Amino acid sequence: MGPVWFLFVYFVFVAAASSAAVLALWLISSERAKSPARTATAAALGVSSAWGFCAIGFGYLATPTVFLLSATYFAWLWLLYRLFGHDERDKSLAPIRPVVAALALVELLHLSTLLALSNHMGDSAPAQLIAHFAVIFRLLFCVGALVLVHNLYAGAEQLSRQSLRWPAAAMGAIWLYDLNFYTIAYLLNGLPEMLAQLRGAALLVAVIVLAVGSFRSESELKFRPSRSFAFQSFSLLVIGTYLVVMVVVAQAISYAGNAYAPAMQAGFMLAASAVALAVLPSPKLRRWLRVMISKHLFQHRYDYRTEWLRFTDTIGRAGPQAPPLPQRIVQAVADVTDSPAGLLLTPLDEGGLALAARWQWSAIEVPGVAVCCEGARFFEESQFILDLDDLRAGREQEIPPAAYPAWLLEDERAWAVVPLVHYERLVGLVVLARPPLARQLDWEDFDLLRVVGRQLASYLAEHATQDALGEAQRFDEFNRRIAFVMHDIKNLASQLSLLARNAELHADKPAFRADMLLTLRNSTDKLQGLLDRLGRYGSHSGNAREQVDLAAMVRSVAAQYSTRHEVRAKEHAACYVAANAEALEQALVHLVQNAIEASAPTSPVLLDLRIEGDTAIMEVADTGVGMSAEFIRTHLFKPFHSSKPGGFGIGAFEAREMIRAMGGRLDVESREGQGTRFLVRLPNSGSAAVRRDINDQNAEVA
């Protein structure tokens, strides 16, 4: 290096040290200084100025200069700490203290290596090892300090960054320069002399940046990093620490001087890499880190902005590939608690709750009536979010047993039950599966789940209202079409009747007359029968009742299919009910036809009849493709939802309504791939008579 270079280096150190001293004095004495954490900034500049003058007087590698450089590290770290705690320090400093303490410890370890190095100057091998560790500690400090600087700026509010960018840029310039400096020193196994001579330039840049920032107006400084950013920064720090520790151990093994040192070093590196590849990508580890960061670094468990954005994205998802709304509702609640699966239970017409949707939870067995009327009433009145682990542990004693049926409590995956209440009316229950890192729900979980539940209840109620409106519109359209059809059929029936009467009077040829009369009368009978059925549509023929033998009806329906498909009907004694024979047979034929269409050609359909108490039960069973609980709940008994091309989709709906009009009930049990059972329940004649007498007595009293 020539004299020009040394003159340049000397000038840079003088300019940096002098300007740092002047700026430090101005920050302390002037009232116009607007720098945040002004005292800490002046202290850092003062110590850095002393280091610069020491480097000029004794040399940049002299022992006093080296120890003063460590002092500058502590001073700048103190400034960084004060910037985090500049405003609302009780809330801001808590998550920062452990990281700052760790960096201070790293610098103390570096100081210990400097002291050890001064005692082994003549011994080249230990001195080289100690110098190697000193470089590693500085690398670790620079990485951690830069992560903190990044958190300081990126985690602040937008308005605060105007004043915060200057000290952050100054510290970033110093530590970024040192990071490159010590990285090259680590790779070259020695300090790069040229970069060491130019370190005063990094201090000069930092002083200039701080001087510019000191004349800027100060705004409020609040450190509020997002959870995702905190998680990424902490993960980066963990990974960097892991890599540094791995390198340190590997280098320590290599310096041991053992003959097996290379093999041990290679084995350690391989084992450490295998552990990193196995552990670091683990979803369980990431969830644990998120929980620990949220628990210890933030005042609240949830980032409500992120939760709301995710919630609206899940519910607002549209398109042919998007899951139906009931599944999205379950997912939206499950995302709040990181639950992997869930169920949606919605009210039945008869009371109670039934399964309406599953989300990633196909294994759990849910009965037809999942929660009885009493349990649904409890959730509707109390709006209580039920933690099932509290019940299992005996911490909840005042919950009625109807609120947690056996199928729910016995499944260990079931974790929590969230009611969806809309205008004090229960529109659904969401059952959440246990998350990978289960915990006891607290007040913050309850508050957030209650708000989310109310919002989802409004979506569910709106969806039901839209379905009802669409159904009413389709019914109106259907009724208009039927009115036109009835009008046309009535005219045609009248014309054919007139033609038949004229043919009886005027046909001359006997053979022609006979054929014409037979054809016209058959057509007239068919059209008149169709007209009668269309005229009865909507009333369900529930008023005209007679004593009907169900055993004879079962045999008659089975005989109708004797040439088309095997329908097995067991022999039973006569069993009478009060019903409309034609309507009941029409409903039973529809159920048998559905069972045949769902079964293989060689698979028989079973018809059975039995008595349970005061109820007669007709059963139609098949072993066909079966139906899912979601299909039964949302489509089977909904008009105009047909799986057949060109079908109206009103057969099952009409069958259920006709049976209801007779005082009965139609139940269905089905499993996909295993078959379906339809159960027609009707009160037998004895119980029906008792009910009629009770109704008549009540009417007379009234």
TrEMBL record:
One GO molecular-function entry: phosphorelay sensor kinase activity
Enzyme class of the recorded protein, top EC level: transferase
NCBIfam families, per database record: PEP_his_kin (TIGR02916)
The keyword Transmembrane helix appears for this protein: yes
Catalytic reaction list: ATP + protein L-histidine = ADP + protein N-phospho-L-histidine
Keywords from the named record: Kinase, Membrane, Phosphoprotein, Transferase, Transmembrane, Transmembrane helix
This protein's record includes keyword Transferase: yes
Name of protein: histidine kinase
Pfam families per UniProt: GAF, HATPase_c
Organism per entry: Aurantiacibacter xanthus
EC number: 2.7.13.3
All residue ranges annotated as the Histidine kinase domain in the record: 484-686
Segments crossing the lipid bilayer: 6-28, 40-60, 66-84, 96-117, 129-154, 166-188, 194-213, 234-253, 259-280
